[in-house]
Design a protein that fits this description.
Domain CheB-type methylesterase: 142-335
Strand order of the largest sheet: 8-9-7-6-12-13-14
GO cellular component, one term: cytoplasm
Number of domains: 2
EC number: 3.1.1.61
GO molecular function: phosphorelay response regulator activity; protein-glutamate methylesterase activity
Largest sheet: 7 strands, parallel
Pfam family, one: Response_reg
Number of strands: 14
Structural class: alpha/beta
Length: 336
């Protein structure tokens, strides 16, 4: 495990917490030193501060991810508060998770517990033996282009979303629904980031908002995003009932409503995330005749949610995000 932080005090405290959890730790005082270490050492998790002299953590993140050769990056910074622009930018660039670093005098107690939990989460699913990428001929061509695309994601999902959306192209004219596990304070900036990544308008969903083609809608942090019929189309609704998974928002209600409204014309995607949220809704998609594709384990930060649908035999294909984006575009391009 690698700690990248310019504060000697912060590095010492982080080292003590991690070594207390049984981790082997190495340190770097800035991004350049981190890259030099990663050229010689292999680690599975990197704790990266944002505010450092020279190249800051966000600017260095793409190079650190490449040098880390699959290592998960946890941003630990005073600027990574929920809803902060730096947090969403870091997640979009490929960071696995973020954690607010408190003042030097309180780097213990609850923070130590949270840090140990985040590190365990990032290491428990970071194992060899990922199933091979699997595609299915049933993904189809233009004659069965989907009328809606629904995407569920959690930990690691923002970066995966960026990789998927970047492959869609203008041919994809279906509305896109996204449930990403994030608090409400993240949503305005998250929607703005998604709009840039997708090259199309993205809105934080509101109750009774009309569903329109070519638009992206993200679930608010305080409600499940579902859709329902109306006389001349479909409308979005916000459901605030407790979900079976305990998540708010939850992927299950979104998938279930999409299955009920669109049946075989639905294309559902399960991206990186911890737990099993979305597995029950995925079963509804498949039973209704829709298409369900899961992200592969190798490209996932945490292969909990996609792994659950794969283990249940529900996924028609298991692919990295770029390939999922191309598979969706393929449906709108006549299979060319």
């Amino acid at each position: 495990m690698l700690i990248v932080d310019d504060s000697i005090v912060a590095r010492a405290v982080l080292r003590r917490i991690l070594e207390g959890s049984g981790c082997d730790v190495i340190e770097a005082g800035d991004a350049r030193a981190a890259l030099d270490l990663l050229a010689r050492e292999r680690v599975n998790v990197i704790l990266l501060d944002i505010e450092m002299p020279g190249q800051n953590g966000l600017a260095a993140l793409p190079d650190i991810l490449r040098a880390g050769q699959g290592a998960r990056v946890l941003i630990v910074s005073s600027t990574s508060a929920p809803g902060a622009e730096a947090s969403v930018r870091a997640l979009a660039l490929g960071a696995a998770d973020t954690l607010v670093k408190p003042g030097a005098g309180v780097l213990a107690g609850r923070f130590a517990q949270l840090l140990a939990e985040r590190v365990e989460r990032l290491t428990e699913d970071h194992r060899p033996g990922a199933p091979a990428e699997r595609a299915a001929p049933s993904l189809g061509t233009r004659r069965d282009a989907p009328r809606i695309v629904a995407i569920g994601a959690s930990t690691g999902g923002i970066h995966s979303l960026g990789r998927l959306l970047g492959e869609l192209g203008a041919a994809c004219t279906a509305p896109i629904l996204i449930t990403q596990h994030l608090p409400a304070s993240f949503m305005p900036y998250f929607a703005a980031q998604v709009a840039k990544l997708a090259g199309r308008p993205c809105l934080v969903a509101e109750d009774r908002m009309r569903l329109r083609g070519g638009q992206v809608y993200v679930a608010p942090g305080d409600g499940h995003l579902v859709c329902g019929p109306m006389t001349d189309g479909h409308v979005l609704r916000l459901d605030r009932e407790k979900s079976a998974s305990g998540c708010m928002p939850s992927v299950d209600p979104m998938f279930a409503s999409v299955a009920a409204c669109f049946g075989a014309d639905a294309f559902a995607v399960m991206l990186s995330g911890m737990g099993r949220d979305g597995a029950a809704g995925a079963e509804r998609i498949v039973k209704a005749g829709g298409t369900l594709v899961a992200q592969d384990q190798e490209s996932s930060v945490v292969w909990g949610m996609p792994g659950a649908v794969v283990a249940a035999g529900l996924a028609q294909a298991v692919l990295p995000p770029e390939a999922i984006g191309r598979a969706i575009a393929h449906r709108f391009e006549g299979g060319r």
